[in-house]
Amino acid sequence: MWLESLRIRGLRCLDDVTVPLTPGVTVFAGPNGAGKTSLLEAAFLLSHGRSFRSGAREALLKRGADSLSIFAELRHADSRLRRFGLGRQGARWEARMDGAGISLSELVGECAVVCFEPGSHALIAGGAEERRRYLDWGVFHVEHDFILAWRRYQRALKQRNALLRSSSTVPDAQFLPWEVELGAAASLMDQQRELYLSALRTHLMSSIEGLLPELGLVELRYRRGWAEGADLTELLAAQRGRDIARGHTTQGSHRADWSIAFDHAPLREHLSRGQEKLTALACVLAQASLYAERRGEWPVVCLDDLASELDKAHQVAVVEQLRAVGAQVLVTGTEVPEALMDGPTQVFHVEQGHLSPLL
Ligand SMILES: Nc1ncnc2c1ncn2[C@@H]1O[C@H](COP(=O)(O)OP(=O)(O)OP(=O)(O)O)[C@@H](O)[C@H]1O
């Protein structure tokens, strides 16, 4: 799939910007603080319903503005054209597809954008939440009923946590239905997450082979969030007292995590900062490649600040691989990366939130 155009209003320093796009590689070049990353952020928002940058959602709104909107024309590989709109008015988000209102999850399900950016190494070196988000985004796009189990789980978790924090004594019978529900939804989520990671392994091996061959074979380890072999519903009932003392549910799918181990770097601490970044990039590319295998088209791939994140050889390797599969690639940099000089590339100059085409 590729974005044919993006129109962004009221996002950070982008007041009202229209970007016509072509299927191959596009570079947004310009000085620091020009608004380049914000352009990628807009594309990513359509596909995730959140930014890849940490911080309050309010910071996305242009200072002084009370709304933001993103319109996109997206062409699928089978040549269908979809028109999307995502808007935020006050604290409310609204999504549209071809003129009709849709839910945020329907929008996210239709539009696939993956992004490698300076914060991506958190996927390897950061906390479990980032890895769970990555995993769930991937599962959501290949297993359509994952969202149903995920919603059931979130609802039951909220209810159980509210009971745990209740000031009055709550009888056990009130906990039980939520613990049964948590156990049932967690078991569905767990199966789908595990299947996804085992399918991802082949894609990860091939992207690691291209980017980090020196690290040897790669292994993906999954932890589901509660003891192996135990029944979650029984476990929750048994540790209710402890959870009341802590004020939240301490085991379950919301504590799941995964990690990567290499033959020649069995612990994360064995990786250099650059190797962490390359591993994170390999994960992003593997996810895109698995998406392409299952859905028949590559997601849009964003590479933020490519030249300062990767050495030239790795920049070339990534861009050539993405060109070869025909993915749309959106790259940012203070200059056009040398690695992109050779192939066909659309270039925009970005300055103070304004865009002008260069090539
Ligand atoms: N809510 C906001 N309202 C208005 N301007 C904002 C807001 N949030 C950020 N900005 C400004 O918008 C610009 C956004 O920068 P962005 O990160 O997109 O730039 P960039 O071109 O990627 O920069 P760099 O090369 O330094 O990474 C910055 O100048 C920043 O100060």
From TrEMBL:
Residues 22-354 form the AAA+ ATPase domain. It is found in: Cytoplasm. Keywords: ATP-binding, Cytoplasm, DNA damage, DNA repair, DNA replication, DNA-binding, Nucleotide-binding, SOS response. ATP binds at G30, P31, N32, G33, A34, G35, K36, T37. It comes from the Bacteria. Signal peptide: none annotated. PROSITE patterns: RECF_1 (PS00617), RECF_2 (PS00618). Its main location: cytoplasm. SMART domains: AAA. SUPFAM superfamilies: P-loop containing nucleoside triphosphate hydrolases. The RecF protein is involved in DNA metabolism; it is required for DNA replication and normal SOS inducibility. RecF binds preferentially to single-stranded, linear DNA. It also seems to bind ATP. Belongs to the RecF family. This is DNA replication and repair protein RecF. It comes from Dyella halodurans.
